[in-house]
UniProtKB/TrEMBL annotation:
InterPro entries: CU044_5270-like
Transmembrane segments: 69-89
NCBIfam families: CU044_5270_fam
Full protein name: CU044_5270 family protein
Sorted UniProt keywords: Membrane, Transmembrane, Transmembrane helix
Stretches for region Disordered: 1-23
Keyword Transmembrane attributed: yes
Superkingdom of origin: Bacteria
Length: 325
C-alpha cells in the first residue's frame, strides 16, 4: 500500500468518502436538513452532472454508452439548487492475485473459442451491430438497445428504456483519431492480438492519456476504464487479447462470489477506481466466459451500485431494426 500524500484526505476530512457512504451522506455533514435520497435520484443527478462536465449536453453520442457511469475526475452532485464537489477516496488496491490473473487468462481462452457478445459476427461495412444490454441500479432495471455502424461511417441509434424513462439519440459517425472507445466493430477488428502490442496501443489511446492529463488519473486506472468500454464490442481474437492485457494490470483483485445483472452467479476480477468504486468484470464460475460488469460502492466489497450484462448481439441492415428471434 502506498503511503498517503500530503494532499490525501484524512479521516476527518469532510470530503472523503469511505465504506458505503453515498453522496447524500457527504452533504449531510454540512446540511442536516438534506433528505434521504433514492438510488434513482442519486443516479439522475450524476448523469446530469456528467453531461454538463463533459460538455455534451444533448449532443448525439458517438457510440452507445452501455455503462451506467462515465467517470470524471471528481464526482459532484447537483442538489437543492447547488453543486457541491468532492473527491471520492476509493479503497487501496490489493496486490495482484494469482487467482485474478488466472481467471482473466482462462477468460481469454474461452473468448477465443466461444461465440458470445460480438465474437462470431461478420458484418458488411454497410451493416450495423445491434447490442441489447440490461442494466441494474440498486435493484432497478434499464435497457439499452444500440445500432452502431459496422465501419463507423454512418449515423447509428441508441434507445434506453426503464426506470430512467424512454429516450432515443443518434450515434455520430466515427472520426479517425478518436479514442478506441468510440471505434466501430471493423476498426476494432484490426487491433493486434498480441497482448504486449495491444497494451502499448491502449496506453497511448487519447482517452487514457486525457484521463491522466486532465483528471490526474493513474495510468492503470485509466487503462481499466478503456478495457471496460471495449470488451463487449470487439471480435473474439481481440477480446481474448484484452483479457490478457487486463491480467497484466497491477493491483487487480479477485472475488469468488459475484452475480451479473441477469442474476447469473460467477466470479469477478476488479480494480478500484477512486472516482467510482471497484470496477469488476464478472465471469461464469466454471468456464470463465465473460458475463458482464458491476461496480461496487467506494470502500465496499459487497455493495453493488451498478451492474450490466449483454443480452443479445446481432448484425442488422439499418438502425432500429430488430434481429430475428
Amino acid at each position: 500500500m502506498n503511503a498517503s500524500s500530503p494532499n490525501d484526505p484524512g479521516p476527518n476530512d469532510p470530503f472523503s468518502v469511505g465504506g458505503d457512504t453515498n453522496d447524500t451522506d457527504v452533504l449531510a455533514r454540512f446540511r442536516q436538513d438534506v433528505p434521504a435520497m433514492s438510488a434513482q435520484a442519486r443516479f439522475q443527478g450524476r448523469q446530469r452532472l456528467e453531461a454538463a462536465m463533459s460538455g455534451q449536453g444533448g449532443r448525439p453520442l458517438r457510440r452507445p454508452r452501455t455503462r451506467r457511469v462515465l467517470a470524471s475526475a471528481g464526482v459532484a452532485l447537483a442538489l437543492a439548487g447547488g453543486v457541491i464537489g468532492y473527491q471520492i477516496a476509493g479503497p487501496a488496491g490489493a496486490d495482484t492475485s494469482a487467482q485474478a490473473a488466472e481467471v482473466l487468462n482462462d477468460a481469454a481462452v474461452t473468448a477465443a473459442a466461444t461465440a458470445h457478445t460480438v465474437v462470431g459476427l461478420k458484418p458488411r461495412p454497410d451493416q450495423y451491430i445491434y447490442l441489447d444490454v440490461l442494466h441494474t441500479t440498486s435493484g432497478m432495471n434499464d435497457r439499452t438497445q444500440s445500432w452502431t455502424s459496422a465501419d463507423g461511417t454512418r449515423q447509428g441509434l441508441v434507445r434506453t428504456s426503464g426506470f430512467m424513462g424512454d429516450h432515443s439519440s443518434p450515434i455520430d459517425p466515427y472520426k479517425s483519431g478518436d479514442s478506441l472507445r468510440d471505434a466501430p466493430y471493423l476498426v476494432l477488428a484490426k487491433l493486434p492480438t498480441d497482448p504486449d502490442a495491444l497494451l502499448r496501443i491502449l496506453y497511448a489511446d487519447p482517452a487514457v492519456l486525457g484521463d491522466q492529463q486532465h483528471n490526474g488519473t493513474k495510468a492503470d486506472v485509466a487503462l481499466w476504464g478503456l478495457l471496460r468500454d471495449l470488451v463487449e464490442n470487439v471480435p473474439a481474437a481481440q477480446e481474448a487479447a484484452l483479457f490478457k492485457v487486463a491480467a497484466k494490470v497491477p493491483h487487480i483483485s479477485y472475488s469468488d462470489n459475484a452475480t451479473d445483472a441477469a442474476g447469473r452467479p460467477g466470479v469477478a476480477v476488479g480494480l478500484p477506481d477512486p472516482r467510482l468504486g471497484t470496477i469488476q468484470f464478472v465471469f461464469d464460475r466454471s468456464s470463465h466466459a465473460f458475463l458482464g460488469e458491476r461496480i461496487l460502492s467506494p470502500g465496499s466489497t459487497t455493495q453493488v451500485e451498478f451492474n450490466d450484462t449483454v443480452q443479445r448481439t446481432a448484425v442488422v441492415d439499418k438502425p432500429g431494426q430488430l434481429p430475428n428471434p
